Amino acid sequence: MPLNARQIDTAKPKEKIYKLADGGGLYLQVNVNGSKYWRMKYRFAGKEKKLSFGTYPDVSLANARARREEARKILAANNDPGEVKKAEQLAKKNSIENTFEAIATEWYTAKMPNWSENYTSYVIRAFKNNVFPYIGSRPIDGIKPLELLSVLQRIEKRGAPELASKVRQRCGEVFRYAIVTGRAEHNPAPDLASALQGHQKQHYPFLSVTELPEFLSKLGLYTGSVITQLATRLLMLTGLRTVELRMAEWNEIDFDNNVWEIPKSRMKMRRPHLVPLSTQAIHALRRLEQLTGNYKLIFSGRNDVNKPMSEASINMVIKRIGYDGRATGHGFRHTMSTILHEQGYNTAWIEMQLAHVDKNSIRGTYNHAQYLEGRQEMMQWYADYIDDLADNKMVSHRSLGKSG
């Protein structure tokens, strides 16, 4: 006979577990500690199985019967209600654990050992400020293209189309990671490129050869900080990125071999970088040694010698000598590349000097030292060329025979 509420409420524990049947396979299991569990016994593919519906009184008699009827409908459709329940629980678990933020954080953690400290900080900051507040808590496999587009358009409306483009690319990488790890089936990011405004790639202002003599003259007459003046000159003579230069430490300089070895932790592509130093670069470093040689940092800060000079220091020098908007610290790399290519130097040497990723996978496997001798010659020529321009001497644009 079917159970009633009074029978259930008055059921007392015994020395052994016992059952009170309700019919259709549903029964109440009374444990020795007095707890009461709803169970359903059924057969599927010739095997006896059981389902759990929860505890009484959290699950009422009426609720337990409703769940029994749902299970019987599943059986009637020739499906196993136990397996269906497991699939539903897994889907629910995935919807909670496999959110966009959780997957993005997992992807980020796997990638960050190969990134520079600055880029690592940039990527997570972009997600935290622009993506996580809007779709971070959403299950990644449930995010529709329109949802992601809304996130990206919000960035564009702030006047940051380039950031929107980069965020779309990083989101695409997260979706791809989710797909290969079995947490998503579709990547909506690539299809959204055409829906965005797009942006013009930023080109840093740079100086042409004809503009260099006057610039070098004004730099030589600069009356501000000697440290930032020498930093600007070294940036021109080495082709380094500003962040790579300003955080330099004295233990990276090998004066005996005229080489500057930058650890991978400071490089954009997380690879150690060897920089051959011309006699002019060595002279500038020796002058700096007299000023900051007792400190850890070559370009120590004005207010705190344990911190590097500010990010804007070199561009401030450029601004004060009258080249604001016409030149930047990063632009010196373009100027160097242009001049060296025009002189016929080996492209691989130039790309290695600028610490660019070599797109030729075979050539890219070479160690930095493979090109060091050729790059040493190239950078000495370039330093001499810069000096000649500073002295307003005629510079021969001969075609160089040595190309590696």
Please explain how this structure is put together.
With 404 residues, the chain is α+β, with helices and mostly antiparallel strands. Helices cover 47% and strands 10% of the residues. It has 16 helices and seven strands. The protein has a four-stranded antiparallel sheet, covered by helices on one side. Helix 7 (145-157) runs antiparallel to helix 8 (161-180). 29% of the residues are buried.
Number of helices, counting only DSSP H or I runs of 4 residues or more? 16
Mean model confidence by pLDDT: 86
Structural class: alpha+beta
**What order do the SSEs take from the amino end to the carboxyl end, as H and E?**
HEEEEHHHHHHHHHHEEEHHHHH
Determine the N-to-C terminus distance: 95 Å
Low-confidence stretches: 359-368, 394-404
The best one-word shape is: elongated
Proportion in helices: 40-55%
Main β sheet profile: 4 strands, antiparallel
Strand order of the largest sheet: 1-2-3-4
The radius of gyration computed from the alpha-carbon positions, rounded to a whole number of angstroms, is 34 Å
Strand content bin = 5-15%
Number of strands: 7
What's the topology here?
Layout: H1 5-10, E1 18-23, E2 26-30, E3 36-44, E4 47-56, H2 61-76, H3 81-97, H4 100-111, H5 117-130, H6 132-135, H7 145-157, H8 161-180, H9 212-220, H10 226-238, H11 242-246, E5 253-254, E6 259-262, E7 273-276, H12 279-292, H13 313-320, H14 331-342, H15 347-353, H16 372-390
Antiparallel strand pairs: 1-2, 2-3, 3-4, 5-6, 6-7
Helix pairs in contact: 4-8, 7-8, 10-12, 10-13, 15-16
Quick overview:
The protein has 404 residues and is α+β, with helices and mostly antiparallel strands. 47% of the residues lie in helices and 10% in strands. α4 crosses α8 (161-180) and α7 (145-157) packs antiparallel against α8.
